[in-house]
Amino acid sequence: MSGPILLALRLLLAVALYAFLVWALWLMWRDLRQQSRQLAAPAAPPLILTLKNDGAELTYRFTTAEVIIGRDPTCNLRLDEKTLSARHARLSYHHGQWWVEDLHSTNGTLLNAERVSEPVVAAAGDLLRCGAVLFEVNFEPT
Amino acid sequence: MPYEPSPAIDWIERRLLLLAGLFLFFTALALTLSPAARTRSWSVDLRWSHWLGFLVWSLGFALVQRRLRRLLPNRDPYLLPVAAALSGWGLMTVWRLLPGFGARQTVWLALSLAFLAAGAQFPQSLALLRRYKYVWLTSALLLLAATLLLGVNPLGYGPRMWLGCCGVYLQPSELLKLLLVVYLAAYMADRRPFLVLAESGAVGPRPRLARLLPLLAPTLVMIGLALALLLMQRDLGAAMIFFLLYAAVVYLASGERGVLILAGLGLMLSVLIGYRLFDVVQTRVDSWLNPWVDPSGRSYQIIQALIAIANGGMIGRGPGLGSPGLAPLAHSDLIFVAIAEEFGLAGVVALFTLFGLLTARGLRIALQAQDHYRRYLAAGLVALLTGQALLIIAGNLRLLPLTGVTLPFVSYGGSSLAISFICLLLLLLISERSEAAPVRIHRPAPYLELGGFLFLGLTICALAAGWWMLPRAAALLSRTDNQRRAIADRYVKRGALLDRDQQPISVSSGEPGAITRRVVYPELSNVVGYTNATYGQAGLEASLDEYLRGERGNPGLLIWQQRLLYGQPPPGLDVRLTLDLDLQRLADEHLKGYTGTLIALNAENGEILAMSSHPTFDANLLDEQWESLVKDPRAPLVNRATLSRYPLDDLAERLFPQGLAALGVDPLPAMRLPLNGAQDSQTSSQGISKNASTPTPPGLQPTQPARGGSALPTSPLQAALAAATLTNQGVRPAAEIVSAVLTPLGGWTPLERLSQPQRVMDAQQALAQITPFALPTEQIWMAVETIAPGTPDAVTWVLAGTLPEWRGAPYALAVIFEGEYPDLAEQTARALLNALMGGQSAALNSE
To answer: How close A47 comes to chain B (CA, Å)?
Structure first.
């Protein structure tokens, strides 16, 4: 009986070891992809997101060409809010526009109360709702 | 920025550390349970002590992580987990090999982590290292010089490269490696303006190597000093690393390809010179180029390393289930081998990927460094860590000559571990990102080339490991110097050798882990042979090894499953011989005290019923008596029945006028078994004296030119077969000594016969040839003759058999006494024939 138990442990340790490596490599690759996108993109007009929950207004300003909203610590805009998915929504600048995209979130993303199912263009003053969080989208003129 | 990037860094680092901890936890748990799997029982002492190491590792890295989060919030998040995985893996491996050393390594790990935690508070130490570069390097050189006078070796032998006392030892060459990188980085950064000037051509017509030389003069002096000291110490591995590091840092700083070409030429030249001057270099290079010629001497270490690597296979034997301790220095220089055996190709590829991650992150840190000093330093540290790992791993895999350097983070050794962690600390300090943008890179190519070179090296090493572990594994594992076979014999029951009535001749017994082999009837030792951890195998134990060991005859799935689960073969199969112990006893009683041999066989089916050779030995006492047995001029280890050759002279002319070759007596290849003494070179032909001529390869005898007809010396077995041919009315039987194997699926399974009986003369002719020797009243024929009487080489022969009038199975025998004993020989032959014919019981006729 000790042999099969040990074999299971040997497989588990291999899985843990490879999980370490694969995860590290995946993170590094994601990092690289984000960096390359940022470098390739033309200078994006800085994105201003204003958090409009609870009456209190909080403003975030981003100069990157890609902004990811979610609970995950690797997100550009990280909020500890139960209704948010780990990686909830992506705002990215290409073709001269800022685009909003839902990242298969649990509670969905709405732009001006319309569900975002494919990338759509955001305009200044649009209201973006991720789960229970509401933002106002604005751009800084370049 | 309104948001901090540090949560992501912490999160990545913590997650990775957690996964590394999980990996180590399962490894430690497997190690704890491994004794149970080895012995296949739960009533054994499990291993617990290494959990102390695991505890220190977990607490240490958790504390360091907390501290780094505060002190270096923008550090590289991958470096610490990679170092944690490597050092934990090494710690578990050292603990698995030598628990005492594991405890020491744990203390060193705790100290290194404490240093790391403390050092993170002083980012200014980088500047300090730069400012006093000559002081540091000179003190390290002085320490190294001190080893020439005060050096010791903690092992008590070998090169004296350590300083210290009272159980704490330091290896100054490890410190020197690090300080050399610091010095070179600082020096090159200080001279940066001149380097750029030299390159831009502002101070001369063309930027060439010659312009670099004056700039490099001080470093050449320092490196020359270091190399000279290392050469005096015979620390050639370290010298090689110094040389490569120097070339790497100068190339990174100058971007001048000529440096690499010059360094390559210099390295080749110094290897050539070293080969002439130093025995060490010669030994290492020779055993690298051609290890197979001296597997037990100079290349013992590398061959044992390769066998251990081959034993790893795809997923390894599992922690605690291999035998990596067989390779010398498995805990330090050869720790990669220990990991390869127990974690397999999967583990080795993971190990290389960890070093690959270290390289990638290190070079990234170098490229993003805020000044040239930090950039050179980071790249140099990467070259030091990964380069040293490549040097020793490639040595373990026989891609390069074996050098005595450690595997950073992994190998046992306080100095090595501490220096690895200081390198880590420096890299972490450099990686701490500040607002300042990275300084412009003058030439990025050298960094990419360094990374490419290191990745290429890791890939080649992975391919080489796969080569030894998969296509070459079978050949390596079946080598006789693979001691894992002898170890498996202690844990897995070997099959018994039984006589035809299933009485035991040679059996294994004992608890797993302490199984011993015992010859129940020791007089047969030189026939059945022995299987011994020190002296190898001989006789039937050697030729039937695959069945006795369970590697043949068992279902393939069972063999595969046992190897996967336990790294051992399944329980061995019992083998039934054709020998009859009662008859054997009778033969031994007659021969005891004399030098001679006897073979009795069933002339019809060729089954050998008794085979006795005296003097004999007791295989149970081999360990005590080996020396005297080997030197004994009467050659007790030799089975005279098959190995010795005696002249037949005119007995042959009278009994076999047509010559033995015409009878088709070519017995040795026809036998299933190489009955000659031993299977391998370890014990081939031990001291064969006067009459017993050197054994010829089987089957050589009949094809020799028939000088003097049948006067050629004949082996007793050949003579017995010739006598059996006459007895069996002209049909030569096929000799057999193995009757059947007890397989788990098929019960007693007869082995396939390797030859068939053959009619070589007609019955009338055979009868005519034995008629002159017939004793009709006893229904037997018997020829007795003393060859060369009155000389020291006198030999008495008896060839005998039953007559056709005998209604039972026909029997034939050959008896040889060295010396003049015609009466004794005749008595012996008659006693055996009487026993055979009188005891014509069911036992002898059962087949």
So the answer is: 13
How close, in Å, is residue B566 to chain A by CA atoms? 6
Under a CB-based contact definition with an 8 Å cutoff, are residues B608 and B736 in contact? Answer: yes
Cβ B203 vs Cβ B211: under 8 Å: yes
Please say whether the beta carbons of B347 and B507 come within 8 A: no
Q: Which of B261, B245, B122 is nearest to B185 (CA)?
A: B245
Q: In terms of Cα–Cα distance, which of B421, B319, B260 is closest to B25?
A: B319
Concatenating the DSSP letter of every residue in B310-365 gives HHHTTT-S-TTTS-GGGSTTTTTTTHHHHHHHHHHHHHHHHHHHHHHHHHHHHHHH
- Closest listed residue to residue B231, CA positions, set B266, B262, B273, B268: B273
Pick the closest to residue B321 from B40, B567, B27, B39 (CA basis). B567
pLDDT tens by residue, B123-135:
888 989 999 989 9
Please give the helix or strand (H or E) that residue B743 lies within, else none.
strand B738-743
Tokens of B649: 């002279």
SS (H, E, C) B592-631: CCCCEEEEEEECCCCEEEEEEEECCCCHHHHHHHHHHHHH
C-alpha distance from B24 to closest chain A C-alpha (Å): 7
**pTM of the entire structure?**
0.82
- Whole-angstrom Cα Rg for chain A: 19
Q: Which residues pair with B775 in a beta bridge?
A: B780
> Is B347 near chain A, with CB under 8 Å?
yes
If DSSP states are collapsed to H, E and C, what string results for chain A?
Answer: CHHHHHHHHHHHHHHHHHHHHHHHHHHHHHHHHHHHHHHHCCCCCCEEEEECCCCCCEEEEECCCEEEEECCCCCCEECCCCCCCCCCEEEEEECCEEEEEECCCCCCEEECCEECCCCEECCCCCEEEECCEEEEEEECCC
Collect all residues of chain B within an 8 Å Cβ-Cβ radius of residue A5: 33, 37
Q: Is B19 on the interface with A (CB under 8 A)?
A: yes
Q: What is the pLDDT of residue B702?
A: 34
Write down the ipTM of this complex: 0.83
DSSP for residue B744: T
Count Cβ atoms below 10 Å from residue B327 Cβ, excluding itself: 25
* pLDDT for residue B839: 58
Residue B135 near chain A (CB below 8 Å): no
| Residue B724: HSE in the Cβ half-sphere, 13 Å Cα cutoff | 32
Encoded tokens for B825: 């020989």
Q: What is the CA radius of gyration of chain B?
A: 36
**Whole-number Cα distances in Å, B223 to B166, B180, B230:** 32, 8, 10
Structure tokens at B271: 């290897």
Residue B784: strand pairing partners: B798
For B23, how many CA atoms within 13 A lie in the half-sphere containing its CB? 29
Return the higher-pLDDT residue of B111 and B647: B111
Contact A107, A132 (CB under 8 A): yes
